[in-house]
Write a structure and sequence with these properties.
CATH superfamily: Endonuclease/exonuclease/phosphatase
Strand order of the largest sheet: 1-2-7-8-9-10-14-11
Helix content: 10-25%
Strand content: 35-45%
Shape: globular
Number of strands: 16
Radius of gyration: 19 Å
Number of domains: 1
Distance between the termini: 70 Å
Number of helices: 4
């Protein structure tokens, strides 16, 4: 599927940053092994749970981390995809999210707000994929990483399109990304705020779903993700190959945004559960002895 001819399918470039590099299944691209001191095996318990991914347009992550962690305590996803975090690079790197580490992100430098990010449970190793050459603020904001769960490789993609963004450009860039990343053996989970209403059958929906279906990716969210008194729209979604996994989805209403979060559970993929670690902090003040 080709929407215009002004974009070329150049190979992806991956960050080196003096980190180790390794070849992934695509011989044309190189991936960066992120060596960020993940906890050793004794960090894991002998219990396991299903592989769960969370997505939400968070409408600004600042001052919401504590409430977010509380809302996740009953779900315990391994991957957090957040759109519209509204942070600068130095700000998002300083975000503390308990058992999660920042895997990859994109921050705007021209316009305010926006941005995308993926956080990963600290017991899971991942490889960051650099997609910056395809990013254009408002039109196509994206980040991605590769990780392994139960010996199965997954590529997690998080993207955002502003309602003011160029839709044709968005589709073209998305096709370029998927053309490069997709392989028959690839398991892709693509989360995002598309800012088009999946409840309606419009030409934009048809074009997007046709493109995604050509890569065996299908929408899984069937409930409204943005609810007001007189308006209910489904503008956020999660795409997977629905023929490969047993899955379930549900909303998570945490009150942190005007977008409800979406949870997808792959019930036939099991993950180890990190042990609960206690952190003691001593406060030094005038009353300390």
């Amino acid at each position: 599927m080709n929407f215009d001819n002004e974009h070329s399918g150049d190979d992806f470039k991956y960050r080196t940053n003096s980190l180790r590099t390794s070849k992934c299944t695509n011989p044309n691209i190189t991936m960066t092994q992120v060596d960020d001191s993940h906890p050793p095996n004794n960090y894991l318990s002998d219990k396991s749970t299903n592989f769960i991914t969370f997505h939400q347009n968070i409408r600004g992550l600042t001052h919401k981390t504590d409430e977010l962690l509380i809302s996740l305590s009953c779900v315990k996803p391994q991957v957090l995809c957040m759109t519209d975090h509204c942070l600068r690079p130095d700000e998002i790197k300083s975000i503390y999210l308990g058992q999660y580490t920042l895997g990859t992100y994109f921050c705007r430098s021209i316009y305010k707000q926006g941005g995308v990010s993926i956080f990963v449970s600290k017991n899971i190793r991942f490889q960051e994929i650099d997609l910056n050459q395809y990013v254009k603020e408002k039109d196509f904001e994206i980040c991605a990483l590769q990780l392994q769960i139960a010996s199965i490789n997954f590529i997690i993609i998080c993207l955002y399109r502003s309602p003011m963004g160029n839709y044709t450009y968005f589709l073209n860039q998305l096709e370029l990304v998927l053309n490069t990343l997709y392989r028959v053996s690839t398991n892709i989970i693509l989360c995002g705020d598309f800012n088009i209403n999946f409840i309606e059958t419009t030409s934009r929906i048809i074009l997007l779903e046709s493109l995604m279906a050509s890569f065996c990716l299908f929408s899984t969210i069937k409930f409204p993700t943005r609810n007001f008194i007189n308006s209910h729209t489904l503008i956020d979604n999660i795409f997977i190959d629905i023929n490969r996994f047993n899955f379930s989805t549900k909303p998570l209403i945490n009150g942190l945004s005007d977008h409800d979060a979406q949870i997808i559970t792959l019930s036939d993929i099991m993950c180890s559960i990190p042990k609960q670690l206690l952190l003691y902090i001593r406060i030094i003040d005038s009353n300390s002895t």
